[in-house]
Design goal:
The structure is a homodimer of 458-residue chains. Chain A is of the alpha/beta class and 458 residues long. In chain A, 26% of the residues lie in helices and 28% in strands. The first copy, chain A, has a 5-stranded parallel beta sheet.
């Protein structure tokens, strides 16, 4: 049996490895357009500051390492056409330009997501880059070294933009951040967004919200020198990193007749099968189900991609009639966390606004608790907001902010995410038996405290 | 309506406060034999080193503060008899010695737990103390100041003994620890116990396991000077802290006809009602249900006591026919965490041995993972063991050890505890959507990694 995997980052390499382990006689090839496979994309912002010292640190496995396990990974190879009926692929070797045909018995599509480019004049100037691939980081670092810009502009106040702002500032640049919406961290509620915005300014990031970049302006040599905002102001910037979002990379699949879902990503069932026979999809290119709403969702994150890759890789090599061994990927909660300077910021499930948009009657409570017993030294405040459904008391979501060191926002979010997975109610959370000792939290965890307040409101 | 609460630490003060808030016209009195109410007993070890600077820091609310909320707290008052039929109490004012009668309409028993004393000669020598109440800490500190012992002996390798050993060493004493069982941290599996034992020795605690103290030996002035072990060896010790365990304080209740459960603590139903009308019990004196086995359990911990107090306090003041508003306390998981020097050690649910003893067919996996992405600086290894039921795949328990700073053992345990509460299987955990970013963990959380390995074994 021959398995081909298109795309070799988190989902693709996981699917290939898992398939080979499941079925040692398998012939498996991964095609990856970028020069490295298995890149830890979440680490890219930290290359910009040197927090992660070397780009090689972000390549968790080389093609040689995959080869040792019997998995062929062909980098700098782009699949340009897919014939799902004939089960063939047209593949371009990007080194030589040669186009050749390959065939498969089973196929996993894990083409990932691509950066949304800014649709404004000057967005293709030298010095204006997205940060999606390791090669983007290479270009940013090379530009910074060669041209030594004094100031940088980050466009987009989502988690990537925020991480990039921190890391460019740590590099010694003056950093401005422009976000078209009225606040950064838009997928969070206002309480969290305000804390993040205030922290950015405190750390020295110039923050512009509620305004767009209209144009990038060149210097005399075709490199970016400034951005013009919607109100006419010019912001000097010898380097621009645009983190305005990503979208699923589905062109190849769509052209081959693979059905997309309502989010624009590839539609799959719980086994991660697409509408085409013998074709699975996993990772950032694939849709999943939001487990809180039951509706299709798209959460392009590395850990989820890894989990989906395991399911797709296993299922793709099942024998006929091997249904009993099929794995299922039930869905996602939209859980995430990021660090911005000294703050850890995380969420899971629905924000208050997302709950309302899903037609749910949401009740919320936000509170600040210490991350250790009040009398134990070194505690840091942690803010937690819980969102629950009126009437049923079902937990719908959580958001948290606290200090990276000594705070516990990531813990609050992981507890809440696990509670969402188990469909717990605030009544459950009130009595939840969590681990307490003075160095690790207040006697009643912030989750329990918040649930106790909420239990009087639902 | 008059509510009397016997015992004013975590469960008692919570029950009283909650009852008063629920029913503002309530008359409520708490009797507390110790000189302070509302003591954070979990903080006591940290008084010994000065990590917590002042004993007042551990009194979260004074009687005056309770009085402001309409809750009468009478300290240094011991309830000596309970007539549940006549609904009267005989109360001793420990200051004056006077005995008087009180009456109640509703009663909450929250008499807590008491230290088990060592049944060996010399256990009542000056310089040999348990550590259960704030007054015990006072005695230990006073003895240490006045007599300046050079060396201390801790008896018992449970979490209190371990915390005490750390804090006495931090105070500058030479510390030995004797544990009769073959290892410390006995409620944990061997992997964890070995890590803790090695860490103790690395930090300079002299560790004696598998051997008992036979006798304490006096100096010429009636103070302890040494302990004689089972093999005849003498250990010099000018101060002994015995942390060999606690047992429920149920004498008063039992004499009044309150039924005990099979653990020896007071039997209660989910509403925390005892067998006697209008009598509830909560906190360390009361039994609960182990939610993993469904069997009676006794988990005397401050956070659980607090949660039980809320339930008992609410239910104790319900009007006739107010059943709809009754709260329930479903049970406990035996979750706990403690710090010993640089290690955080936690568990939830059943250990491998406890699972076997409960007649469950347990499958386990233990692994070490980094607490941050491998390429992100500052990560510390965290060990996690998951225990699951063969066949069903249901999670039964978890144990974890990691660095206090930068580790994440407490997070692994809280996620596992929440999963136990939701009765999740390892199949659920494999796909769990937890919060990932490089500064907060590896791409797949240790819980997910361990569950993935386990899913191939159950």
């Amino acid at each position: 049996m021959r398995l081909v995997v298109i795309g070799g980052v988190a989902a693709g390499t996981k699917a290939a490895s898992r398939a080979k382990r499941t079925r040692p006689d398998l012939e498996v090839t991964v095609y990856q357009a970028e020069p490295e496979p298995s890149i830890s994309e979440c680490g890219l912002p930290y290359l910009l500051s040197g927090t992660v010292a070397s780009r090689e640190d972000l390549v968790s496995r080389t093609p040689e390492r995959f080869a040792e396990k019997g998995v062929e990974v062909k980098v700098r190879h782009r699949v340009e056409e897919l014939d799902a009926e004939g089960k063939t692929l047209a593949v371009r070797d990007l080194e030589t330009g040669r186009l050749f045909e390959d065939r498969y018995d089973r196929l996993v599509i894990s083409t990932g997501a691509k950066a949304i480019l800014l649709p404004v004049p000057g967005a293709n100037l030298e010095g204006v880059y997205p940060l999606r691939f390791l090669t983007d980081a290479d270009r940013i670092l090379s530009h910074a070294k060669v041209h030594q810009p004094r100031s940088a502009l980050v466009v987009g106040g989502g988690y990537i933009g925020l991480e990039v702002a921190e890391n460019l500032l740590a590099r010694g640049l003056e950093v401005s951040l422009v976000e078209a919406a009225d606040r950064v961290a838009l997928s969070y509620g206002e309480e969290v967004a305000e804390k993040v915005g205030a922290h950015l300014e405190e750390k020295g990031v110039r923050l512009f919200t509620g305004i767009s970049v209209e144009e990038f302006l060149p210097d005399g040599e075709g490199r970016v020198r400034a951005a013009r905002l919607g109100d006419g102001r010019e912001l000097e910037a010898g380097l621009v990193v645009a983190g305005v979002g990503v979208k699923p990379e589905v062109g190849l699949a769509q052209a081959a007749g693979v059905k997309l879902g309502q989010t624009g990503a590839i539609a799959v069932n719980r086994r991660l099968e697409t509408n085409l026979p013998d074709v699975w999809a996993a990772g950032d290119c694939a849709e999943s189900i939001n487990l809180v709403t039951g509706e299709p969702a798209w959460h392009p994150l590395g850990d989820t991609a890894n989990q989906m890759g395991r399911v797709a890789g296993t299922n793709a090599v099942l024998s006929e009639g091997g249904d009993d061994e099929a794995l299922e990927f039930p869905g996602t909660l939209g859980t995430g966390v990021f660090k911005v300077f000294d703050l850890a910021v995380g969420k899971t499930g629905l924000s208050e606004r997302a709950a309302r948009e899903a037609g749910l009657d949401a009740v919320t409570v936000g509170l600040e608790a210490p991350s250790r017993a009040g009398y134990y030294p070194g505690g840091e405040p942690v803010f937690l907001k819980l969102i629950a459904e009126r009437g049923t008391g079902r937990l719908l979501g959580a958001e948290s902010v606290g200090a990276v060191d000594g705070g516990s926002a990531d813990k609050q979010i992981d507890v809440s995410a696990t509670a969402l997975w188990g469909r717990l109610t605030v009544g459950d959370l009130v009595n939840l038996d969590l681990a307490y000792a003075p160095p690790f939290g207040p006697a009643l965890s912030p989750v329990i405290q918040a649930a106790t307040v909420l239990s009087g409101k639902v």
